């Protein structure tokens, strides 16, 4: 779907300082060689199966299905080691880095989930790890900061700009320029300069490949609709990509709408943004008329990003994937519905995908099959949920 320069239609590319081109080219080369080798594939397979816990189950939801009038299925990425899909990507990039002869991983993190996944992979593969994190996020996410430190990573607070994820990515890219000989940047989502969007999609597509085969085996057919939440877009592209050629399968990505009040801060660049360049690629962005990046907001920290992976911008433009918007209150509702209804506490990110299904139940095919990617578990979100629900 993308050409040599890493474009997806009008989106993507590699807009970086000259000094960042060599490590990106080296990574691209490693994708063509090391990643294709049996040694890499076997070692990754072993890590995914015996360390991370793949394959993840496909869970049928009998109680919600009865209420909704169609069969609801969940792909259980919440059951993976560290509690979300992010470990698929972190292990894949860490293994690649080690086989490239690198000794250090760097990563950006916002809520801390990707930082924890990378620190985990680094500990397992005996690599050094440095995680860049906005100073504001360091204060907000003390549990994940502690996890990273316990896992042996160094956490570097970033004090520039809005002191959040966007600034952490810039700091990590800058650090990489001067440490490229021994370091690989383990990018956390399907965005960034080429080849990261393609690399991350390749590593996360295991989600959709497994789910597609599991649906055929369990339901005897492909789902009518597949739904995933979209932050930077890694769990969504991993889930949706293996269904792109299945023309009868409706594909839905769900962006975070914030409070839902008119003009509120949100994290819905495909629906509410415009094209521009951020973090080395062209994509849909939340920006003002002068191209200044707008602050984003979502109740779920993992969806709180002003951009989105370029392949999603493209799939939206060509109309292959529909991108909906779900606001905070709907996500909280879905969080409770799944918890009480099926005994599964979902991440607030994943709750957005479930909420889209609950909110659009009337339009979905009666008696059909609806597949939702449950990208992560909700234990990390209990503090936030407590604040909103007064428990
Ligand atoms: C980080 C995260 C997301 C959002 O990231 P994507 O790259 O869009 O997948 C979604 N769900 C969970 C559980 C997360 O931790």
UniProtKB/TrEMBL annotation:
<keyword id="KW-0663">Pyridoxal phosphate</keyword>
<comment type="function">
    <text>The beta subunit is responsible for the synthesis of L-tryptophan from indole and L-serine.</text>
</comment>
<dbReference type="InterPro" id="IPR023026">
    <property type="entry name" value="Trp_synth_beta/beta-like"/>
</dbReference>
<dbReference type="InterPro" id="IPR001926">
    <property type="entry name" value="TrpB-like_PALP"/>
</dbReference>
<comment type="similarity">
    <text>Belongs to the TrpB family.</text>
</comment>
<keyword id="KW-0057">Aromatic amino acid biosynthesis</keyword>
<dbReference type="InterPro" id="IPR036052">
    <property type="entry name" value="TrpB-like_PALP_sf"/>
</dbReference>
<feature type="domain" description="Tryptophan synthase beta chain-like PALP">
    <location>
        <begin position="51"/>
        <end position="376"/>
    </location>
</feature>
<dbReference type="InterPro" id="IPR006654">
    <property type="entry name" value="Trp_synth_beta"/>
</dbReference>
<protein>
    <recommendedName>
        <fullName>Tryptophan synthase beta chain</fullName>
        <ecNumber>4.2.1.20</ecNumber>
    </recommendedName>
</protein>
<keyword id="KW-0822">Tryptophan biosynthesis</keyword>
<comment type="subunit">
    <text>Tetramer of two alpha and two beta chains.</text>
</comment>
<keyword id="KW-0028">Amino-acid biosynthesis</keyword>
<feature type="modified residue" description="N6-(pyridoxal phosphate)lysine">
    <location>
        <position position="86"/>
    </location>
</feature>
<keyword id="KW-0456">Lyase</keyword>
<dbReference type="Pfam" id="PF00291">
    <property type="entry name" value="PALP"/>
</dbReference>
<comment type="pathway">
    <text>Amino-acid biosynthesis; L-tryptophan biosynthesis; L-tryptophan from chorismate: step 5/5.</text>
</comment>
<dbReference type="InterPro" id="IPR006653">
    <property type="entry name" value="Trp_synth_b_CS"/>
</dbReference>
